[in-house]
Amino acid sequence: xxxxxxxxxxxVAAGDLTVAYLEAGPASAPxxxxxxxxxxxxSVWRPQIDxxxxxxxxxxxxxRGHGETLGDTTGMSVESLAADAFGxxxxxxxxxxxxxxxxxxxxxxxEMAAQRPARVAAMVLADTPLxxxxxxxxxxxxxxxxxxxxxxxxxxLLGQHRTARWGIAGAKxxxxxxxxxxxxxxxxxxxxxxxxxxxxxxxxxxxxxxxPAAIRALDIACLVVIGRHETQLVxxxxxxIARRIGRAEIxxxxxxxxxxxxxxxxxxxxVAAFLAALP
Length: 279
Known about the structure:
This protein is an alpha/beta fold.
């Protein structure tokens, strides 16, 4: 890979937002739009920006309500975040890009591809669920007993920082200690502690309400990256995504739920090989 300038934090007006983002790589290179997960920020993509910006124009925005991108989060959904992402690309005069998303960011990338496939050159989906559940009764229960009921009470009782710590501890008990790596845990706690409380609730409500019905066969090359210590639901959904899209390959790396942070070298190698093979 060729050398590149260090990433710079920039901002651009896009609709009702002023989007903060990291950018690195040649302006003339193929653009790669990196979409982070819930209560994360653009900084989770620094290993990919450092590793891939020699050959690609790497763009990593803060999603609405996250990091330095403030804005109304009322009614936030996967669909509205996809619209925000298209608005961001429009603001930079980018017609077509590779989409690279992790967790919620991968869900947004899938929605973008479903809405406007001609604007998607390829997709990299890391640790991406289609939804928290695809089954009617369980889905209905999750929507009823959702973050809008649980999180405000937890924040009032424990505060956001302690709620984040308890949430991580509980996840490790349920999914295993290796489900979240040290860097991913730090990003999670920092984001959970610093975001506006209503934005945290809105981000998780968007995940609970996500409807994967629009995901269909697409003529788009797709790399699905899964951490070896990921939950069984997300592993199962990786296979479902590959089945639905049709042009997808699955790569497993030694990581947990945020594989781009847990195993950056293996992640970057898989992505670099995938992008280099694109026509």
